[in-house]
Amino acid sequence: MWSGGVAYVKLIYLNNYQCRCNQQITEQGIINPEWKQKTFGLRSSPGILYNQPSALVGRTDVASVTSWSAPIIWEGTFDSTLIDSIYKQQNLTIATTVFALGKYTRFVKDFLESAEQHFFVGFRVHYYLFTDQPESVPDVKIGENRSLAVRKVQSLNRWQDISMGRMENLEKLIENELASEADYIFCLDIDTKFYGHWGVESLGRLVGVIHPWLFNTPRNRFTYERRPESQAYIPAEEGDYYYAGAAFGGSLEDVHHLTKTCREQLSIDAANSIEAIWQEESHLNKYFLLNKPSKLLSPEYMWRDINESAAQIKIIRFTNVPKNYAEVRPNP
Ligand SMILES: CC(=O)N[C@H]1[C@@H](OP(=O)(O)OP(=O)(O)OC[C@H]2O[C@@H](n3ccc(=O)[nH]c3=O)[C@H](O)[C@@H]2O)O[C@H](CO)[C@H](O)[C@@H]1O
Ligand SMILES: [Mn+2]
């Protein structure tokens, strides 16, 4: 339950946001900026050689499409040679956000170093790191065409507020800074590490990741919020998948709508003195129930732990780093 206190975080930015020229101010207030939108289609060049795709042969041990016809990405469902060559032509920028407050700054080094080895290698990535201790950010070598921006935020006493506060911070970041600077965004947990390729196969309008502990669970046993008083409420007979709160992404416009909606729903819950069972992850799951993702990533993209295995997981791309919750979090 909500234990009182301030529900929302206000950011103190190192540099103030500026009103961008692509925002229009009307009598109703500021309306959405014109999102940078590239409409290249999936163009391929003549002479690129790759394995013939099959209409008949594919993964048979997992589903690679949802009931609303969105692809589910597993190892064996895409060809990196082909898909990289298609997206290379689009000159994309992928914004990637992480938060490291309090003791979570210890995860930054491994996250960034491993991302530089595996995450959108060969593509332009702009990392945005939100922290209450900018001075503690380690010196990590970031590749050519890639960059790291550090944003100072207020420290908070409850891990739940830190985790939930991300939605508002992301909403503002997209609104004020990213509109003309990035094409896609991924929002990731920091207590994580990359061990394998994560590339353009993951791009889509709205992208969710299937939670690593609940990909083989009946929906009435998903850890959705079950109290009707919460905006995140999902009844036992509804729901598609249980999505991880630790990774989601998509186009700026879609992720802006997602973060704005979750921020609003969190705020209604706070006003009603209720905190969803898994905080913003519960609200994210409600959002994805009502706004179906256009692409789903398998748990390869957010695994339990590097030492855990499952028959369906042929490669671990990105995984949680084990942590002592009592030691690392600011409150129980
Ligand atoms: C794998 C997965 O889906 N994880 C989700 C899960 O537990 P987790 O155990 O993964 O939550 P967590 O402790 O990692 O907190 C989420 C994130 O908040 C940030 N943080 C948190 C505490 C702190 O003191 N400092 C700090 O910076 C940090 O970026 C961290 O990665 O549920 C959380 C909400 O209940 C979030 O939805 C997480 O994304
Ligand atoms: Mn985490």
How would you characterize the overall build of this protein?
The model is unreliable at 1-29 (pLDDT under 50). This protein has helices at 80-88, 108-118, 159-178, 252-271, 279-290, 325-328; strands spanning 24-26, 29-31, 72-73, 93-100, 124-131, 147-152, 184-188, 192-194, 206-210, 243-251, 295-297, 318-320. The chain is of the alpha/beta class and 332 residues long. 23% of the residues lie in helices and 17% in strands. It has an eight-stranded mixed sheet. A two-stranded antiparallel sheet has the order 1-2. It has a two-stranded antiparallel ribbon with strand order 8-12. It has a domain at 70-213 and 240-251 and 292-325: Spore Coat Polysaccharide Biosynthesis Protein SpsA, Chain A, CATH 3.90.550. Manganese (II) ion is lined by residues 189, 191, 246, 320. Uridine-diphosphate-N-acetylgalactosamine binds next to strand 4, helix 3, strand 10 and helix 5.
Number of strands: 12
The fraction of residues in strands falls at: 15-25%
**Coarse structural class:** alpha/beta
Computed CA radius of gyration, to the nearest angstrom: 20 Å
Mean pLDDT metric: 91
Number of helices: 6
What is the fold named in CATH at topology level of the domain at 70-213 and 240-251 and 292-325?
A: Spore Coat Polysaccharide Biosynthesis Protein SpsA, Chain A
Shape: globular
The unique ligands bound to this protein are: uridine-diphosphate-N-acetylgalactosamine, manganese (II) ion
CATH architecture of the domain at 70-213 and 240-251 and 292-325: Alpha-Beta Complex
> In what order do the strands lie side by side in the largest sheet?
3-11-9-10-7-4-5-6
> Secondary-structure element sequence?
EEEHEHEEHEEEEHHEEH
